[in-house]
Specification:
Layout (H helix, E strand, L loop, with lengths): L41 H8 L12 E2 L2 E2 H20 L6 H19 L4 H25 L3 H28 L3 E3 L2 E4 L9 H20 L7 H20 L3 H16 L3 H21 L4 H11 L8 H19 L10 H5 L10 E6 L2 E7 L6 H38 L4 H17 L10 H16 L2 H5 L2
Antiparallel strand pairs: 1-2, 3-4, 5-6
């Protein structure tokens, strides 16, 4: 009888560690180092960073009248489409396709039923770009948490550049006109887009705050310190933008980020932030008089509203009147300006005065209700508003659920979830006081894409570091 002997390793030899799982994400470099496989992200990063470059007229860089950032977002969509055709992979999961494609239903209905479908076509393309194509592109091009952090890092860098320009404008009296003085911080967007700087600064502040609040255990301490410093620094240009809507939206987004870190930690953080705000405005007097007056006006919108608030109320009433006449599909995309005068009260002024920041005095017409929800309701009706709200609600609820699970499991991508939830909260609150328009609109699509990636990406991609 023959016995088979099996060789055994010596008892002193330690067991070798398991080999890492193969795959393209194994051994990914530190987030600040760019690798050859990151080239598909270049159009998205360039779309964000190009908004920091001023043009000669104080606005955004344009190519034949089209903002260069919008052209680059189109390049990103083409790169995404080319990769899908080359790699022959399923583009989106059924859930992701349903959530991101839902707004297209309302857009198509509003365009077809418009009184002049040809005139509504540019609006269809713009809405499709911001709310469908760019978010889907971000969802497909972002491979893991490292790619997510690269895009949010670009948002922080853009906010720091624009914020620095805005603080300089306030200090030197070269900003947009506000209360008779050229002190309003608008960055490189000019007086014609006073919300542009406030928007990108709000994005950057929340992205930096999420990086600091949700940093994993292995993250370098200096990176967390830099994130805290950036968030604190961006609070100054945000205050000097004198944008009440951006203040409220940033406070809501920051509160969501802080509360999702845990109640005990949130209580301490909110106390520190409150004390810092008192010291910054009350102690050092950073725009204290004007900021205080602007804050007070938030609580006086019903008792003693200023001219801008009166105009906004009139525009909101006009939007509601359009919807009552066309409840299902609205008056059609780009139809609000044509129907405004027929539904607005006589108290509505002809336009808003803009001046400063390198621009001569001009009268800017009021072509929207400055409320995204009412704009969609008036132009797309209940069909469009239901589709858009359903998509955004799915992104926000899905993002919060995944963030709660990620914290419970100790995921290293918690900071990505905090940023996605904070940015999505900011956007939904800000749309109560603003709508799309201006060069910064394309960044809104990227923010929605980041929220979609966190809420809808497959679990192993969202958890990968």
């Amino acid at each position: 009888m023959t016995q088979t002997l099996t060789a055994r390793p010596p008892a002193s030899t330690p067991a070798s560690p398991p080999a890492p799982a193969p795959g393209p994400r194994a051994g990914r470099p530190f987030p600040l180092r760019f690798s050859r496989g990151d080239w598909p992200l270049l159009p998205l990063l360039a779309t964000v960073l190009l908004l920091a470059v001023p043009s000669g007229d104080g606005g955004a860089v344009t190519v034949y009248g089209v903002p260069a950032a919008d052209l680059l977002s189109g390049v990103a969509v083409l790169v995404c489409l080319g990769r899908l055709l080359y790699l022959r992979v399923r583009p989106l999961t059924p859930a992701a396709a349903g959530v991101l494609g839902l707004p297209a239903v309302g857009l198509a209905v509003a365009t077809v039923t418009a009184g002049d479908p040809v005139a509504a076509l540019p609006g269809f393309v713009r809405y499709l770009q911001v709310f469908v194509l760019v978010p889907a592109c971000v969802l497909l091009l972002v491979r893991d948490a490292r790619d997510f952090r690269m895009i949010t890092g670009a948002l922080v860098l853009l906010a720091l550049v624009q914020g620095a320009v805005g603080v300089h404008q306030y200090a030197t009296g070269s900003g947009a006109s506000y209360m008779g003085e050229d002190v309003r911080a608008v960055g490189t967007f000019g007086a014609g887009d006073v919300m542009g700087m406030a928007t990108v600064v709000g994005y950057g502040l929340l992205a930096a705050a999420a990086c600091a609040a949700g940093a994993p255990a292995g993250r370098p301490r200096w990176l967390r310190l830099c994130a805290l410093t950036a968030a604190a620094a961006l609070a100054v240009p945000l205050a000097l933008s004198f944008s009440r809507g951006s203040w409220i939206a940033t406070a809501a987004g920051a509160t969501a980020v802080i509360l999702l870190t845990g109640l005990r930690r949130a209580a301490g953080t909110l106390a520190v932030l409150g004390a810092a705000g008192v010291v910054l405005v009350g102690g050092f007097g950073v725009g204290s008089a004007m900021v205080s007056q602007r804050l007070t006006s938030i609580t006086e919108v019903t008792s003693a509203p200023d001219r801008s608030v009166n105009d906004r109320y009139a525009l909101w009433a006009a939007a509601a009147g359009m919807w009552r006449e066309h409840p299902a599909a609205g008056v059609g995309l780009k139809g609000f300006p044509a129907h405004r005068d027929g539904h607005a009260s006589i108290g509505l002024s002809a336009g808003g005065d803009t001046a400063g920041a390198g621009q001569d005095f001009r009268r800017q017409p009021l072509l929207s209700p400055h409320n995204m929800y009412l704009l969609v309701l008036s132009e797309q009706g209940l069909v469009g508003l239901t589709a858009l709200l359903g998509s955004w609600a799915a992104l926000l609820v899905g993002g919060v659920r995944r963030l709660v699970r990620a914290r419970a499991r100790g995921s290293a991508a918690v900071d990505c979830g905090s940023a996605a939830v904070g940015l999505m909260t900011w956007q939904t609150v800000d749309f109560l006081y603003a709508d799309i328009g201006g060069p910064s609109t394309v960044v809104t699509g990227i923010v929605l894409g980041l929220a979609a990636w966190w809420a809808l990406a497959v679990p192993d991609r969202a958890a990968a570091t």
